[in-house]
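Colleagues,

For the teaching module next term, I've prepared a clean inverse folding example: a structure given as tokens, and then the sequence designed for it. I'd like students to try predicting residues themselves before seeing the answer, so please don't circulate the second half yet.
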């Protein structure tokens, strides 16, 4: 296991030195084989028991597991001119584990589990920098239960505050790294007036800019025909700044039609959008306990003009604190917003790749702990995949242990004498071991073959150690 990775956990303050050491061992073992059950991942009986003991321990908060990683994230961020922190919520569904206690209701009351609100940092070019924060939301049965007298509304309002907290956490990072340009990105759920205000209050010092996809058709300060001007109409009427063009990947998704989830599919294509930009001042919404102050910022409307028949047009209304007056600036904000896709990939690797929803543990607390550990492993897989593409020529020994690359090379190349491969050569070997065919048309191995390959590399490394320790 490369040392810099176990370092992510080395300083975890778990109120017990032995427990901290055990955690490093467990993490090193799990990292080599995400997707494999804890039993298989940790090999020996002792380690398996240690993993279970740790995961079932109540002597520390799950946040303590992430703290050393968070410190490493801030250090990595410092090396970049621009950092994009996306926030998003994902659910962990453990409804099938009837015996597990300490879980809460999900959106549909019959499903049980918890939510994680992640703050995932990447560079402007997309290098994964890690998880800046992960807040667990465990709903209480009583507060959530909707009756005629108690509607779901209060909990939704309370939970929506996580977007403001997420911005504030990103703001802290921006203050820590005054040399670095920091952006907070969120989709429509994060369109909350208090976020604009938190940014406004931070004026005068280093602060995190934000890009949020507009959710509400807010009333603006101006008046049109005696009525308050509306956000969407105002943007539609703004002059065209220019056109942009980009490629989309094919994408499977879901959308809500009459409150039912419907599967959607979008083919890969070249999208052309016309761009309109405007500085806006929305009217502050009414809130209990005090008036909100006015905030001015920019809005960008990007509208698809070559939508293929039968498909929905790709249309975004983005709000941003960053001044936008030129087409170049608008294009950059749109590209930064598109980096939000990386957090979706991260959640997918964590859930589908590391299969954290199949881990069987007795308590919700233990499951939350395992999600925290696997979140760091999922980041690591994406980091390796990306590094292999961006710095293909560095020696693989920078990120892999000698026993790992020597044994894997011996197996794949059928020769013990091969020299140290470059990182990209070794990732190709890991991918091959994970089932990636590696033909020219296949491209670089993706996360799925990387994590399967890593599990095999770990086994080879164990055998290598066993034969060399004699
Ligand atoms: Mn979302």
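(Answer key — instructors only)
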């Amino acid at each position: 296991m490369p040392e810099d990775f176990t370092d992510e956990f080395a300083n975890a303050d778990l109120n017990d030195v032995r427990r901290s050491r055990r955690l490093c061992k467990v993490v090193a073992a799990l990292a080599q084989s995400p997707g494999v059950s804890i039993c298989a991942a940790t090999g020996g009986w002792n380690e398996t028991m240690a993993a279970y003991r740790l995961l079932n321990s109540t002597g520390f908060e799950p946040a303590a597991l992430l703290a050393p990683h968070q410190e490493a994230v801030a250090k990595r961020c410092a090396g970049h001119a621009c950092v994009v922190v996306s926030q998003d919520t994902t659910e962990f569904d453990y409804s099938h584990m009837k015996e597990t206690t300490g879980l809460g209701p999900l959106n549909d009351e019959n499903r049980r589990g918890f939510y994680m609100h992640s703050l995932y940092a990447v560079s402007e070019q997309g290098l994964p920098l890690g998880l800046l924060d992960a807040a667990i939301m465990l709903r209480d049965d009583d507060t959530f239960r909707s009756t005629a007298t108690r509607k779901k509304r209060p909990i939704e309002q309370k939970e929506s505050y996580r977007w403001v907290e997420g911005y504030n956490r990103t703001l802290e990072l921006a203050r820590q790294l005054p040399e670095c340009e920091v952006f907070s990105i969120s989709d429509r759920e994060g369109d909350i007036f208090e976020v604009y205000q938190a940014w406004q209050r931070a004026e005068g010092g280093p602060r995190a800019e934000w890009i949020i996809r507009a959710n509400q058709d807010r009333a603006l300060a101006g008046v049109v025909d005696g009525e308050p001007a509306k956000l969407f109409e105002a943007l539609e009427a703004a002059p065209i700044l220019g056109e942009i063009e980009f490629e989309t990947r094919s994408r499977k998704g879901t959308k809500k039609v009459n409150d039912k989830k419907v599967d959607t599919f979008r083919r890969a294509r070249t999208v052309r959008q016309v761009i309109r930009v405007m500085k806006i001042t929305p009217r502050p919404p009414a809130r209990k306990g005090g008036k909100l102050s006015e905030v001015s910022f920019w809005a960008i409307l990007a509208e698809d003009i070559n939508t293929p028949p039968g498909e929905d047009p790709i249309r975004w209304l983005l709000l941003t604190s960053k001044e936008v007056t030129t087409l170049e600036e608008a294009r950059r904000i749109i590209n930064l917003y598109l980096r939000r896709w990386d957090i979706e990939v991260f959640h997918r690797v964590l859930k589908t790749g590391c299969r954290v929803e199949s881990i069987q543990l007795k308590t919700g607390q233990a499951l939350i702990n395992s999600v925290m550990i696997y979140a760091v492993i999922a980041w690591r897989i994406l980091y390796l995949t990306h590094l292999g593409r961006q710095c293909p020529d560095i020696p693989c020994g920078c990120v892999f242990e000698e026993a790992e690359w020597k044994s894997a090379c011996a197996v794949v190349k059928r020769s013990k004498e091969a020299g140290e491969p470059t990182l990209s050569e070794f990732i190709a070997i890991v991918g091959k071991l994970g089932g990636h065919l590696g033909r020219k048309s296949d491209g670089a191995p993706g996360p799925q073959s990387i994590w399967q390959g890593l599990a095999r590399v770990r086994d080879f490394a164990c055998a290598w150690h066993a034969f060399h320790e004699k």
